[in-house]
Amino acid sequence: MKKSIKSLFALTMVGMLAILAACGGSDSGSGDKGKKLEVVTDAAYAPFEYMDKGEITGFDIDFLNAVMKEAGYESEFKNIGWDPLFAEIQGEKADLAISAITINEERKESFDFSTPYFESTNMILVPEDSDIKSAEDLKGKKVAVQNGTTGQAAVESILGKNHKNIKKFENNTLAIMELIQGGADAVVADNTVVIEYAKNNPDKKLKTIKDEKNFESEFYGLMFPKGSDLKADFDKAVKEVINNGTYSEIYKEWFGDEPDLEALKKQMEK
Ligand code: ARG
Asked: Which of 48, 65, 155, 241 is most deeply buried (CB count within 10 A of its CB)?
C-alpha cells in the first residue's frame, strides 16, 4: 500500500514536470504564434515598399500582411534602410525582413529565406535619348546603383568589381536622382521598379532596357536570421497565400494583371 502511494506520488511528479516543460516550450520547433514580430524594410523601392504620407506601403507590405494573418502573427514594420536591414537580421535584432530581397547563394550563407514569392530581373534605366541598348553598352559609362544590391553585382560583372564608373548609393531613389541630374548615364535596378518609375514620371523622359543575356532571373524571399524557427511557419503561409488566390488579388491591385503563378510554383518546388 505504502509502496503504491509512493509510486503514485512519483508518477504525479513526473507528470507535473512534463506539463511544466511543455509550457516553457520555446524549443517546440515553431515560433510563438500570436506574437508581434518586428519586420524591417528599406521603404525607398516603389512599388514594393515606399513611404506614402508617413506610412510604409507597397506590394510587399500587403503581401506580408496577408502572410502574417495566415501564419497567425502580429507585425510591426520599421523602415530602417537597406544596409542596416541586413545588420539587424544578422544580429537577430529584428525577426524578419521584406524588401524585394533577392535570394542568392551568397546571402544564403548568412541568412535564411522563405520560399520565393516574386520573380524579378535587373533592368537598365536611361534617358530617352540615350544610345545605350544593352548591358555591354554600359562599358565606358557612369552607372548608378543602390549599394549592396544584385544591381550592383550585375554591373560589376560587366565593368569589373569596384570599377570607378560605378556610383553606389544608400538607396535606389538617390541613384535615380543622380541619373536625372546628369551625374550618371544609367541606373541598374529591379525591372518592376524602373519600369514603374519611368511610367509614373513622364516629365523625366526616361526609358528602360532589358538584357536577358546578361541579367538573370531572380526571386525575392522573406529574410530571417540563420536558424530562425519562424521559417517553417512562414513557408507554409507563403505557399497558402499563393495557392488560395490571395496573392493574385494583391498582385492585381498593384500591377493590374495576373501573376505568372506557374513560374513561381516551379521555383517553390525546388
Ligand atoms: N532585388 C535586389 C536585391 O536584392 C534589390 C532590392 C532592393 N530593395 C530595396 N528595398 N531597396 O539586391
From this structure: 155
- To test ligand 1's pocket by mutation, which of 145, 146, 155, 215 has the most ligand atoms within 8 angstroms of CB? 146
Q: Give domain status of residue 188, yes or no.
A: yes
pLDDT of 53-87, one tens digit each? 999 999 999 999 999 999 999 999 999 999 999 99
DSSP 138: G
From 115, 99, 92, select the one nearest 228 (Cα to Cα): 92
Domain boundary among 171, 191, 209: 209
Grid coordinates representing 84 are 542596416
Q: Is residue 30 part of a domain?
A: no
Each residue of 170-228: pLDDT tens digit? 999 999 999 999 999 999 999 999 999 999 999 999 999 999 999 999 999 999 999 99
Q: Report CA(102)–ligand 1 centroid distance (Å).
A: 7
* DSSP label of 189: E
Q: How many angstroms is it from 258 CA to the middle of ligand 1?
A: 23
pLDDT at residue 195, as a whole number: 98
Q: Which residues line ligand 1 (CB under 6 A)?
A: 42, 45, 49, 82, 99-102, 120, 146, 149-150, 172, 190
Is the same domain home to 115 and 61?
Answer: yes
State the pLDDT at residue 165: 98
Q: List pLDDT tens digits, range 140-162.
A: 999 999 999 999 999 999 999 99
Can you give the CATH number for the domain in which 126 is found? Answer: 3.40.190.10
Same domain for 194 and 225, yes or no, is no
Which domain does 70 fall in, by range?
36-119+219-263
Which of helix, strand or coil describes residue 103?
coil
Q: Which of 259, 226, 216, 223 is nearest to 241 (CA)?
A: 259
